[in-house]
Specification:
The chain has 187 residues and is α+β, with helices and mostly antiparallel strands. It has eight helices and eight strands. It has helices spanning 2-11, 19-26, 30-39, 57-67, 69-96, 108-122, 131-142, 146-159; strands at residues 17-18, 43-48, 51-56, 129-130, 164-167, 174-176, 179-181, 183-186.
């Protein structure tokens, strides 16, 4: 049942789901499952008005970076500090390893977080951002190739369809259904 509850929470994206709605869907027994997921730090709960909303960690970080300027600032600063530390570590690894040619992103969560930050900082008034702009930022900071970036983006967009909308056009982007999709925005 824990997987079903987690999937339901994840499917709601940046909006989250009311805790009461989870109880209606899964019954009162889901309360212990929710408590276990909180202890494992897989979900986050926040009170908004009279209701408690539930998010997965990833969706909550995206939610607050989009809706709370203070949190967005703090996340940006933390990301910049991590990038500086990672660059230093990478330079040491390059010196020690002859065959090191690309920085390896440690987790999908790290890439999603970096991607969401760049997207939030670069989106236009209607929300669309060229993939090429995000690629330049991430490839510079993470020292990855363009091909590796677009591979990661394709996987990210496919896994989190509820979070992103893509549009065809542009000079570069991800290939879907035979078309180059060069623009992205948060939903």
């Amino acid at each position: 049942m824990a997987n079903e509850v987690l999937e339901k929470i994840a499917s709601t994206g940046l909006n989250g789901i009311k805790r009461v709605e989870l109880k209606r869907t899964f019954g009162k027994n889901c309360e212990s499952v929710i408590d276990a997921l909180i202890k494992k730090q897989e979900i986050f709960i926040e009170k908004k008005g009279n209701a408690y909303f539930v998010w997965t960690k990833e969706n909550y970080v995206s939610h607050i970076s989009k809706n709370d300027p203070k949190s967005k600032l703090a996340l940006n600063m933390a990301t910049k500090m991590n990038v500086k530390e990672e660059k230093g570590e990478h330079q040491n690894n390059v010196r020690n390893t002859i065959n090191t040619s690309h920085y390896v992103i440690n987790s999908d969560m790290e890439f999603k977080s970096e991607f969401d930050m760049c997207l939030a900082n670069a989106s236009t008034s209607i929300g669309w951002t060229p993939f090429s702009f995000i690629r330049k930022k991430i490839c510079e900071s993470k020292q990855i190739s363009s091909d590796h970036f677009y591979t990661l983006v394709s996987e990210l967009v496919e896994r989190h369809r509820e979070n992103y909308e893509i549009s065809s056009g542009g000079q570069e982007g991800i290939m879907m259904r035979g078309l180059v999709h060069g623009f992205v925005r948060n939903i």
